[in-house]
Protein 1
Amino acid sequence: MRTTAEYQAMIVDGSLDLWGNQISDVSPLAGLTGLTELYLGGNQISDVSPLAGLTGLTVLHLGGNQISDVSPLAGLTGLTELYLGGNQISDVSPLAGLTGLTALHLGGNQIGDVSPLAGLTGLTTLDLGGNQISNVSPLVGLTGLTKLQLGRNQISDVSPLAGLTGLTVLYLWGNQISDVSPLAGLTGLTELDLWGNQISDVSPLAGLTGLTELYLGDNQISDVSPLRLALPNAQIFP
């Protein structure tokens, strides 16, 4: 295991990249309080408590580890980007106070309750794909979002997303959605993925004239030709 001094020598412009290094113990990093960016994706980390004092961090990558408890990150209020995809997280309540976040990646975890994220109104990118989410109503106030990934969850009601009019990219593939009418007002969308749901009526999408990519495969849609006429600029993948 490397020492704190060895890690210190690897820092470039406040950034330390330790991606995919088979690291399990991050305690030698605890003293690196000058760090602003830390990349620890693809390791074997389960305990992130030694990172609790790295309050200068603005970017933290911890994707693809074995983390279940994110409470040690609660005090890292300077973070603007946090990557936690591909871990074993179910409780995101410790992240509720990280109001400076603009990008939060939580895909591929075990999250069912997203209500602790309701106050993260600075978010522009939110990835919650591959979790156990059925209720997206806590996201109703995240009106700054431009990219939202909710693929592979258990969502049937998308009406809480109707007010997220800043969205340009929305992924809803692999859910249980039949009614897409709440999406009719999201006229800023350029990419919409609805693959693998229970949709038969796509007429509410006819006004989304900014779309360039629309994914509709593995649904119950009999005819997309009216949509092709309504959305001449869109590549439609039936």
Note: The chain has a mean pLDDT of 98.
Protein 2
Amino acid sequence: MRTTRRVWINYQDEKRGAEEGREKLKEPVAVVGSSGLRSVGRIVVDELVAKTQPKPRLFAELFSYGFPAAYYGPSYLGAPCGVGAKLERGGLARLPSVEFYALESAGSGENDILITRGYQSYNALNQYAVADKVADFFKELGVKRVISLGAQVVEEGITDCATDLELLEEMYKYEIKRTNVDRFLGFPGLVVALAREKGIGGVCLFASTTPNLANPEYPDFRAAKELAGKVGEILGIEIDTSELEERGTAERELIEGMGKGEEREGEGEEGEGGEGEGGEGEGGEGARKRGQEREDLRGYV
């Protein structure tokens, strides 16, 4: 039992710890996202890490025996999984982890931002152990508020839930209405709930998405764009969402192209199978374009 519950944090600079981190971070607001429904929360966190200035600094990582290298189904539902190393682009092997980035002196307010790129554990015991460790870490760093990110398929627009009524009223100023969804599955929601038990207020923001039954975590870049814009407004920072718009368009074209390709295959089987004018060249270009679009989706599917 003790082995399966083991969770530990490594600092990028081993000489630094939570005490020094508290001195460096000024009443930080933690933003939490991970793999989940249509990968919306994870995409927004990735954009915060990649697009905000000054560039966020990776200062700590959390590791756990409960982190698998791959899931064979929705990670937030504890799907069957496999233990091992994750392979990054370039062929580097590393352990799965929760990553903590510091965005210091960000925005027009007085708070720094602690960006947390989460990871789903494979069962409830490990999920609680990891989320509890993260909540303790937030408390050590003096985090004043947690904003967790996700998605839902029931309501339109950006909706929320929070740990207290004051936060709900504050979010209403940003035209965010209270959700009627009754649960937030997975790592980000659990972190907010456990942080509340440690005296840290928090809010969960949900983007509106559509279900993908074949792959519930297939990325919805358009929903992520809407949520990223709202997060930037709340934090008082600029987040460039133009690439999310482009990737959302590419995703839609990819899906539509696959559908048209299936229709053409059906027509070809029914017809006599003549050689179309310029078909080979156009088909090759289309295949290359779809291949590039699939490469752009890597990391989410």
Note: The helical segments are 18-24, 40-51, 124-140, 165-172, 187-197, 221-235, 242-270, 279-296.
Protein 3
Amino acid sequence: MNKMKQDMSFNNIFRALFPAILYMLISSMVEVTVCLYIFLSGSYGDVETTNGLDFFYMFSENINDMAVHYGYLITFFSALISAVIFFPIFMKECNKNREYLKAYLSNRVKGLDLIKIFLLGASAGPGLSRLLTLIRIKKILEDYERVSKNLLNGPLIIQIISIALIVPVTEELIYRGVIYLRLRKMTTMRQAAFVTSMIFGLFHFNLLQAMYAFLLSFILLFVFEKYKSITVCIVLHGTANLIAVISEYYGIFNFINKNIMIYLAVMIVELLTATLLMDRMYYEEHTKKWS
């Protein structure tokens, strides 16, 4: 009992959740730094002749506009810096808890399994997004579209490298690789999964994206627990983001959105595919246990 109280102490809980806070702080600092650099370049007016107070007001008035137009750069540098910081933390976590983490990170994923993960990400990601977009609340949709525009702009190659590669690596190291495993040592798998998913959702700062991230996190944790590999989480997360980037860049989303029947048909196929894949994975896991 004492050990349980010690494991659930404030310090241990804060230690488990701190990576998400640090990630948010890094992203905020990068956003301000990038916007300040762009502002000083003169893109938003002559700043050389303005005094300190006027400079502050001008910068405050334009920072949101800059964040939207240069969101792809902010996302890229935030994820890149965070990956450099969190990868050593993840490796240190592995070295400190070898016996415990061996149960989670010891498996090598086969090629066929990676194909299943790729298909799951390609179906679950857009399927959940379409399902949640059916929530026709104007303010929520406007915020969602604004955030999406913030992320999905800029050169295609930068979007792919940033959103489909670096962001999934960074976020999986943080949320599944560090936060979830730290919580898993203190509580049950379900409780750790719920808290991790809640944090993952809340740190997306938009209701629709938060709901999407919350639900996607359970799928990521499902494959994490099944395959005992952080690689599958990165592949699934990266695939879901890649589909979003390509669909937005080439106008696939707009084409599907024009006809509600096509929209619903595509959504149902995506969600059904994801459900069948997860059911198959669950069946394989339980068959293996009883064989």
Note: Residues 21 and 219 are 23 Å apart (CA to CA).
